[in-house]
Amino acid sequence: MTLRRRLFLFVSTLIAIGLPSAGVVFAYVSWLSVLERTERDGILIAQTLAQSVTFIQQVPTALEQIIDQNVRTQADIVAQLTHLAQRQKTSALEINRALRTIAVRNGIPEVWVTDASGKPLFWSLDDIDASIALDSGLTLQPKFKPLLQGQQYSLSTELIYRAIDHSQLYYGAVTMPERSGGMTLIAHRPNLANSSIQNVGLKRMVDSVLSGALIDAIWIFDENLEALAVSSVASIDGTATLSNEQRTFIETVISTSTPASYFADKVLFRHAFLYVAAPTFGADGLPNGAALMRLPVNMDAELHSLLTIGGGVTVVMLLLGMALALPFLNRIVRPLARLTVQTHRLVAHHFDPDQEMHAELLKVSENRKDEVGYLGNALYSMVTTLKTHIADLKATTAAKERIEGEMSAARAIQMGMLPRNFGEPAPGARFDLHAVLEPAKAVGGDLFDFFPLDEHRLFFLIGDVSDKGVAAALFMAVTKTLFAVEAKRDSASVGGIMERVNHSLCENNPEGMFVTVFAGILDLRTGEISFSDGGHELPFLLRHDGGAAMIEKKKGGLVLGFVAESVYRNDLIQLQPGEGLVIYTDGVTEAMNGEHELFNATRLGNSLAAISPACSAHMIIDSVMSAVRAFVGAHPQSDDITLLALRWHGPSGTGLPAAD
Fold first, then answer.
1. Which of 33, 88, 244, 654 is such that its CA lies 20 to 30 A from the CA of 41?
2. What value, to the nearest 5°, has the Cα angle with vertex 41 and ends 277 and 265?
3. 133-149, pLDDT tens digit by residue?
4. CB burial class (10 A; 0-12, 13-18, 19+) of residue 149?
């Protein structure tokens, strides 16, 4: 498939996927917007409804207060008139007749006027009813005592039930004028219409709200969650038990005095029910119930319109995008096709461009400031400079191969300078020695050597030059040669050999290099090692019964090649038959793994301690190198590694390890 077709399909796919995806996102945002708007409007309606319910519920209380005040006023007027009648010496019969007339005309059930002891003096009832009331002890109740004694001006009672005649009345009472003692009581019957007014008012109000808003159900609850009024589009049982979720929801609204809402039966892009509740309040300002509404949210019509319009827009935009994409793709793809042809020609001409190729590349990038033009210019620059770079690369590769060959030869020469023929210890041999050197680079700065001084003495040494690479390899060769010459010229003292070699190195050391050295002479008759140390690592002693111990240096000197006048002293190690010595460079103890942990002297000592006393020097070296490689893993080697193991078997080879 060509690039033009791929890009065309890519653009078409983007349009085909992008537009419906945008439509889905828009539909989801619209759905959330509808839910949010419905919830906001629902809470506002619920608060308004709750305030209206609060007002309706407080109307009876206000009426009771007005009636109570009216009754007290009537009682006060009766008290004043009665007081005036008493002062005019009006008879009790006439006063009772007047009170009865007032009661009948004003619909007052009872009027009583008492003396200071509570004994009725005048009343509005006939004689039979008056005797019944007198027998009930109405005027002698303790609640009227402050009025009878002139300590309180007026009061209103709760509903009083009189068992003698089964009457239920409220009373308003005032003290007699001038605090002369006694009181006037006027009764009024309970306003039975209040509850009916309240219930009818609630029902009409919720029905009115239901018909004027997008609400399908309204409940009005008291503080006990009993339904006071229910109205719905579909018939809903007002006595039905609330679900636990609804009960908890309404209780929370009442306890917090805050409106709240939640969604139920929500189906994405289709429908949901929003439940909104707001608290109602009593005359004392405390919540005494709640108004609950259910609002349906239906997106079917909106979704159908959105799909119809969105589908048409998608088809139109897809066709328009395809029509606009073709010329745009041609402008991009055609120059790329021409660049592809010239690239094939360049390969066919073995990267040797001709004039036609140069002209075609210039034509592609001409008058273009976009990425295609930049690509054409870049390809033109590449073609003009590629031949030069290829020539330079060939020269560099040849030089690198020559240097690698020279380094390989240098490595072979350096390795050839070291002893290579160790062999296996023959039966009766007095010692066993083996060594290994692994440079970190092609050539390194570590060294070791050993050779007999006579038939009873063996000279050995190990060293580590301060650098790596070619310079360290040359310094190593000089050091090894000087030790061989000085040891064979005068081997009376290892310290003397070290001093002479150090003096020679300091005389010709323009780079300021130095080397650490451990050198010794083993007396094959006694097992005594006379050694001297120049800043080298501490050696390990291999016991004849197993185990390894680090030898602390008591004497020694500085590194060689640093101070010409350095003094190096001799020290002694006495080996028993079967015991040995292991010396090494810091490349062993400083070998590093991938976690940047060092192998260190402790791990080296543990590796040596695990080796059997019967192992040969070769096996000792192999065991330590295996432990180092296992610890390092795939981490690259950072320093030269050199090991030398020497075991003394006794003056006549009696300590030779037994064959496995």
1. 244
2. 60
3. 567 777 788 888 888 88
4. middle
Structure tokens of 31?
């759905």
- Token representation of residue 416: 């050839």
- Report which of 412, 409, 428, 429 is spatially closest to residue 420, judged by C-alpha positions: 412
Residue environment code for 365-398, b if the CB has 16+ CB neighbours within 10 A, otherwise e: beeeeeebeebbbebbeebeeeeeeeeeeeeeee
**pLDDT tens per residue across span 456-493:** 999 999 999 988 778 888 898 999 999 999 999 999 99
Give the pLDDT of residue 608.
94
Distance CA 334, CA 326 (A): 12
Q: CATH for 423-648, among 3.40.50.620, 3.90.280.10, 3.60.40.10, 3.30.450.20?
A: 3.60.40.10
> What band does 548 get if pLDDT is binned at 50, 70 and 90?
very high
Q: Which of 36-45, 77-86, 147-156, 339-348 has the lowest mean pLDDT?
A: 339-348
Q: Where are the domains of the chain?
A: 3-61+194-298, 304-388, 423-648
Q: Distance between CA atoms of 644 and 459, rounded to whole angstroms?
A: 13
What are 48's strand-pairing partners? Answer: none
CATH topology of domain 3-61+194-298: Beta-Lactamase (3.30.450)
